[in-house]
């Protein structure tokens, strides 16, 4: 083995070590551990979510639901996959300055929230859904825009 080959594993490990170090620093600095909880205050860690958090505090849903109840799908893996995906997208937008002035929900996250509405309010929504044509979906926020986040 040449001297060069002896140091190759170490040289390959340097970028990985740097990436891991930066990732751990960022996780700590951004209070990443708080996003693993169901605490709504974690959603307000980022100033762009203050309006949504304040709206939730004023809403009737505050007494019965936290952010994760409406904005993550049921099940451990789908919940934390969604949290990780949203966290990555929020971090990327924050880092690159790509947040719009007024935060917008993505199509995927709107479907997750819609599913939560339909699940929690099944006693009401089952009748509404059955009265519609099979290809016509229910869109709760079209009529109840400010329910989860009172304005």
General description of the model:
By secondary structure, this protein is an all-alpha fold. The protein folds into two domains: about 1-30; about 40-145, Di-heme elbow motif domain (Multiheme cytochrome fold, Orthogonal Bundle), CATH 1.10.3820. The protein has helices spanning about 5-30, 50-60, 65-70, 75-95, 105-120, 120-130, 140-145. Helix 5 (about 105-120) crosses helix 6. The N and C termini lie far apart (about 70 Å).
Percentage of residues assigned to helices: 55-70%
Largest sheet, in brief, is:
none
SSE sequence, one letter per element = HHHHHHH
User: Which structural class do the helices and strands define?
Assistant: mainly alpha
The CATH top-level class label of the largest domain = Mainly Alpha
- The CATH architecture of the largest domain comes to Orthogonal Bundle
For the record, give the distance between the C-alpha atoms at the N and C termini, rounded to a whole number.
Answer: 69 Å
Task: Round the mean pLDDT to the nearest integer and report it.
Answer: 82
Count of discrete alpha- or pi-helical segments spanning 4 or more residues: 7
Number of strands: 0
CATH topology of the largest domain: Multiheme cytochrome fold
Strand content: under 5%
How many whole angstroms does the radius of gyration measure? Answer: 21 Å
Regions with pLDDT < 50 over 5+ consecutive residues? none
**What general form does the structure show?**
elongated
**CATH evolutionary superfamily of the largest domain:** Di-heme elbow motif domain
Could you say how many structural domains there are in total?
Answer: 2
């Amino acid at each position: 083995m040449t001297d060069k080959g002896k140091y190759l594993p170490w040289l390959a490990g340097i970028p990985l070590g740097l990436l891991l170090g930066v990732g751990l620093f960022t996780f700590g600095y951004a209070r990443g551990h708080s996003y693993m909880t169901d605490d709504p205050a974690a959603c307000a860690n980022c100033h762009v979510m203050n309006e949504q958090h304040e709206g939730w505090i004023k809403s009737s849903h505050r007494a019965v639901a936290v952010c994760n109840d409406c904005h993550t799908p049921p099940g451990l893996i789908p919940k934390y996959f969604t949290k990780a995906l949203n966290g990555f997208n929020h971090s990327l937008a924050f880092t690159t300055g790509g947040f719009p002035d007024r935060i917008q929900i993505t199509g995927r996250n709107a479907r997750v929230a819609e599913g939560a509405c339909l699940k929690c309010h099944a006693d009401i929504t089952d009748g509404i859904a059955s009265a519609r044509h099979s290809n016509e979906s229910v869109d709760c926020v079209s009529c109840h825009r400010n329910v989860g986040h009172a304005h």
